[in-house]
Design brief:
Elements: E1 12-15, E2 34-39, E3 57-63, E4 79-80, E5 91-92, E6 105-118, E7 121-127, E8 136-142, H1 145-148, E9 166-169, H2 171-184, H3 188-199, E10 215-219, E11 222-230, E12 233-241
Parallel strand pairs: 9-12
Antiparallel strand pairs: 1-2, 1-8, 2-7, 3-6, 3-8, 4-5, 6-7, 10-11, 11-12
């Protein structure tokens, strides 16, 4: 009889400016988010990465560690409501990339940047990750264009990229950004990343037409307050510095 459970090692932990699931891109490479993977012993040796600089992109296999899902097979939920179908239509979990699945495993292609090996430890720098801070990494593999990219693949209900919405900054907030930047130690590139994240519209699909309803996305040490002010227009209204 085959076993119904397996045990996998955690080889590293993601360090990301994204602190919560809300606001995290629903797929990799939608936003050029800079993140790192801090390798854990005994996997934090440079020889384990020899030759990796020859590859531009990597597969990262990781865990949806914040999901509150009971792994007992008797609690298996065969259908989910993907955001791309408006959050109301059900589809089979194995016909989706939902985070709510039996093994809670994520699979992402990211851009490889560089490796940093210091007294603080070995870190793998990546770009385009759709993972929050603290995500456990199970494995890392090189992306192979000749086999991993299929030109005539059909993507069903997710055949097109998500619609990008316009993002405006509240005029009063623009006047305070330089002051907030000093206190929060955020850079111009961080403001650009925040704008790109909001443009993806992280709100639940069933609330993406709600006007003037406030939402909050956490990025590094700030909470970003935003709402929809017109058709396909989101406005960043406040930046709250966390303690």
């Amino acid at each position: 009889m085959l076993p119904q459970q397996i045990t996998l090692p955690i080889i590293g932990i993601v360090n990301s400016p994204l602190k919560q699931k809300f606001g995290t891109p629903r797929q990799p490479n939608l936003v050029d988010i800079n993140a790192t993977i801090s390798m854990l012993p005994p996997y934090n040796v440079l020889s384990a990465f020899e030759g990796i600089a020859q590859f531009s992109h990597l597969w990262i296999i990781w865990q949806f560690h914040q999901n509150r899902v009971n792994p007992n097979p008797s609690n298996f939920q065969p259908t989910v409501r993907p955001p791309r179908l408006g959050g109301n239509q059900k589809i089979g979990v194995f016909a989706s990339r939902s985070m709510y699945r039996p093994a809670n495993i994520g699979l992402s292609v990211v851009k490889f940047s560089h490796i940093e090996n210091t007294e603080a430890g070995l870190r793998l720098h990546i770009i385009g990750a759709d993972m929050i801070d603290g995500t456990p990494v199970i494995d890392i593999k090189p992306y192979l264009p000749y086999s991993d990219s299929i030109d005539d693949a059909i993507a069903g209900y997710a055949s097109q990229k998500p619609i990008i919405k316009s993002v405006h900054w509240h005029p009063d907030l623009l006047q305070d950004l330089s002051h907030i930047a000093v206190k929060s130690q955020l850079k111009q590139t961080d403001w650009q990343t925040i704008e790109q994240l909001i443009a993806q519209d992280p709100r639940p699909a069933y609330r993406q037409q709600a006007l003037n309803t406030p939402f909050v996305m956490r990025y590094q040490n700030v909470d970003v307050h935003f709402s929809q002010i017109a058709d396909s227009v989101l406005q960043i209204q406040a930046i709250e510095l966390l303690n």
